[in-house]
## 1
Amino acid sequence: MSKYPFLKVDLHFHLDGSMVPETTWRLAKERNVTLPASTLDEFKDFLVRTADCGDVGEYLARFDIPTAILQDKQALLETTYDTIKNVKDSLCYCEIRFAPQLHTLKGLTQQDAIEAVLEGKKKAEADFPQIKVGLIFCCMISLQDNSKDNEETVRLYQKYYDHRHVVGLDLAGFEDSVPMEHYRYLFEEPKRLHLPMTIHAGDNGIPENCSTVIDFGASRIGHGHHCYYNKDVMQEVIDKKVALEICLTSNIQCKTEPSYQLHPAKKLLDAGALVTLNTDNMVLANITIEDEYDHAINECGFTYNDLITCNINSIKSSFMPEEDKQSYIDQLIKSYR
């Protein structure tokens, strides 16, 4: 039986960083994508050995393998299905994010990629009704001019948004390699339409980026832990009830925090911030949601009841339909010790 026998939610969950190793191995072999190993066991060992990175740039380079594989509809469909199957018994709800523009290198359109992921998601939910999934589309920060690609992602988000399948818009990539303000225009129309947004900020970048993306219209911030280092920004996050998608292990592996012990997540929670706990890239980081809970309790100062509070925060700030939330919250409240 699980040490954590309560409903668990993961709101910050990248599809390409959470590919099941067996699926990655099989799809790579079928597509003649070179892997840095000669056997599946060696590949799994590679994932473990390379999880700890020098910085965010080195961490992001590890996505080259899944990106090379996920360039056709069948690979996207099977990966989505197998990824959801992998977490069906540990999570009751998750929001899986991906960047449609990263899957167009071999002829797919962004819409093709979206349709393939949607099909895999719907098939998995039909086969595993114990888990519900929302999809988030990521625009990308890039040193090259990818404005047309980002604009297409936003257009498709507005087309596909439906509360239950496609639920949110994001901006991901190497924060502060391009000033955050450069991307403001992308979010003007979604903000006007009151469409849900969660934007990566305050991770390797400056705390003030958190205020910037709140102004863009984000109701959640991907990571956001650096808001702690500017008390005005932190207070804005608290006052405006903007949820923080904290990913403890990812922050340590990317060196955006020096250690679990010094991570400000528990201080943010105690100050009144809507802290949520998430895996970020489950396979590339070699962790599960329960591993994150172990770190939270054993090294970050969280209590068992804090974990339940974080999951309540996750449900409240999730992009699932409002009418679906209360039953989850009621069950979580009953789990307090």
## 2
Amino acid sequence: MNRLTYLFLILLLPLMAACVDEDEYDDTPQGNFEALWKIIDEHYCFLDYKQHEYGLDWQQVYNKYRVRVQGQLTDLQLFEVLTQMLGELRDGHVNLSTSYDYGRYWSWFENYPANVSDTLLRRYMGTDYKIASGLRYRILDDNIGYIRYESFSSPIGEGNIDEALMYMMLCQGLIIDIRGNGGGDLTYAELLAARFCKEKTLVGYTQHKTGKGHSDFSSLEPQYIEPSGNIRWTKPVVVLTNRQVFSAANEFTMYMKAMPMVKVVGDHTGGGAGMPFSSSLPNGWVVRFSAIPTYDAQRQSTEFGIDPDYYVSLSDEDVLKGRDTIIEFARQLLRE
């Protein structure tokens, strides 16, 4: 996302907050239910998309769950009903926060193989790997560079990336392992992707809500990654993914797929293509939801994830041998 678009969206969020809070509801099970349903109905950004993808009907969801908040409910019972209702959205960015629990939808990775092993990663990293803020890196014994970035919530700066790339400059290829990366700050995703960009590259599009209707959106606004003015990598790159790659990490995968010398290896990513926003219910519980949708360079939503160029899973046989099937496939790909 370019800086002007990002700043515009940040400035837009307070206006959205005013829209969310303009109607008052009683602090009762029924009032909290009505407030939550309406927040999603007017501000969630994927209702039309998910109706098309799997038949989600938000009005039917209302009818289904409204009967469950009749009469007196305890807070625990209300929390269960509201969390199950939000689960109908199938969105890892949709959460309900209380002082005692965190309502979430995590089936986007919990229902699939992990395809990453801490034990195997320790074997490949050893104990003498380099650390540059959020980056862990080393040179593997076949002269392949390896970077492990576990979370885009871990900050990185231009100097950190410079040091890592300079250290591996003589390697014949580079692996960037983001398996298990659940996202974080998009700024770091853009910063890192810019090191593999040869020219200004269209990587996707974004929209913002213009009204309360499910289809009220602005026109698509292009997103570009521009080449970094610092050290850039021009040799082949393989990005490793699994189902836990989500949100900003999903966006990073989308950026890298637009770069000609990059291949993605591993599993389908977890998705999460909506910029999240939060609002409060009358009882003080906080709901987070996707408010601003993004799309890839082909104008397709990546809300439900991104396909790798090569599907590869950890095999039991390799694990028993202490081998990471996905890393080994990437090494072979780079050697060829």
